[in-house]
Amino acid sequence: MTPNEALEYIHSVCWKGSIPGLGRTRELLEKMGNPQNQLQFVHIAGTNGKGSTAAMTANILRKAGYCTGLYTSPYIFRFHERMQVNGQCISDEELAEITSFVKPLAESMADHPTEFELVTCIAMEYFKRHHCDVVSLEVGMGGELDSTNVIASPLVAVLTNIGLDHTEFLGDTLEKICETKSKIIKSGTIAVTYREKPSVEAVIEARCKEVGAQWMPADFDSIRLVDASLEGQVFDWGSYQGIHLPLLGKHQLYNAAVVLTIVKALRERGLIISDEAMREGIASVSWPGRFELVARDPLFIVDGGHNPQCIEALVHNVRDYLNGRALTVLTGVLADKDYSAMYQDMAQYVSQFVTVTPPNPRALSAQDLKAYLERFGKPITACDTVAEGVALAKELAGREGVVLAYGSLYMVGDIENAARL
Hints:
Elements: H1 3-12, H2 23-32, E1 41-45, H3 50-63, E2 68-71, E3 83-85, E4 88-89, H4 92-107, H5 115-129, E5 134-138, E6 156-159, H6 167-170, H7 174-181, E7 190-193, H8 198-211, E8 214-217, E9 223-229, E10 232-237, E11 240-245, H9 250-268, H10 275-283, E12 292-296, E13 299-303, H11 308-321, E14 327-331, H12 340-343, E15 352-355, H13 366-373, E16 380-382, H14 386-397, E17 402-406, H15 412-419
Parallel strand pairs: 1-5, 1-6, 2-5, 6-7, 7-8, 13-17, 14-15, 14-17, 15-16
Antiparallel strand pairs: 2-3, 3-4, 9-10, 10-11, 12-13
C-alpha cells in the first residue's frame, strides 16, 4: 500500500460517520494485539480548548525528556498532523505500513469501524511502535462513547471548557454534556478540570466520588496578566512569574492554567517535570487557527472558532487586540452549524464581509452565506474559491486595515497557505 492508497482508504471508507459505541474499537484493537495497553495517557475531553491543552501538555512532556505522542482532530494542513511523536507528524511510509496492517483486520469485522475509530486504532499502533512514554490524547466527540475511551485509567483525565456543541448527540444542557464527557474520569486517576459553573462542577465532583478519582480543578484566581500583544502573552500563576504564552486571548490563559495543573497532577503521579521544561513547553507551543497572526501587510488573523463560546472569546480578542481597526471579515461556515450565533455579536465590529465556501461536503455556499449576512447591512462579496477570497479581503483591507478570517476549521489550512503567499 502506498501513502496515497492509505489516505484514500481511510477517507473513502463508506462506513458510518459517527455512531456511538466502543465495541468496534475494542474489537479492532483486540485483533491488533491491544497496543493501547502498552501506553500511558493524558486523556483530554471538553468542548473548547482541547487541542491547545493537548498541544501544550505534549510540548511540556517532550521538553521534560519523555517520548511523547499527540493525538488530535481535525487536522489543519495535512492528515498526518493528527498523530505525532515528539512534535513530528507520522511519516507517509509509516502511515502506509500501519494502515496495511490494520485494513484486513478491520475488513474482517462483521460491524465495520467508522473512520474515526479506524484512525484512532492506527494512532494507537503508531504510538506503541515508537514506545511512547505518555500520549496526550484528545477526545473526538463527547467522552463516554468516544473511541478514545477504550483506554484504561489514564494518568490524568482532563476536562476543558464545556459548552453547547453536538447537542444532538451529547444533550441539550451543559450538565448533560458534562455528564458524558466526565466518563473519561476513571478509578485511580487525577481529574484536572477547567472551572465551570457550580451545577456543572457538581457533575464532575459526583463522577470523581463514584469512581474514586482525585479532583484537581484549575486555579483561575491565581492568573495575573503581565503583558499582551499580537506577539503573545506574559502572565504569572501562583508562585510562577513571567510565563510566556504565544497563544492569544484570555481563554488561552485559562487553558494554560489547566495545563499547569496537569503538570502538578503528573508530578503527583511520579513524572519528573522541571519548571524549566514547563516554561519552555508553554513558550514554544504552536497551535494554528486560534486567533493566529499569519501575515502583517495587512494584518491577517485566522480563527477557527464556530460555536458560541468560541465566538464569545473571539469578540473579546477583537476588542482587546484590534480595537478601532477597520475589520474585513473573510468567512465561511458549515450548513449544519448554528451560524446565526457566529455573526450576531461580531457584526458591529465589521466593516465588510467576504464569503467563501469551506472545502467540506457539509459547507454552506458562499452565495447562501452572503444572503444571510445581508441582514447586518454591511458590504458583502461572495467568492468562488478560498484563494480568491483571501486576495480580495487583503485588497479591501488595505495596509491600514485588518483581515479576520473565521468560521470553520476546515478552511484554515487553505486560508493560511493563501495568506502567506
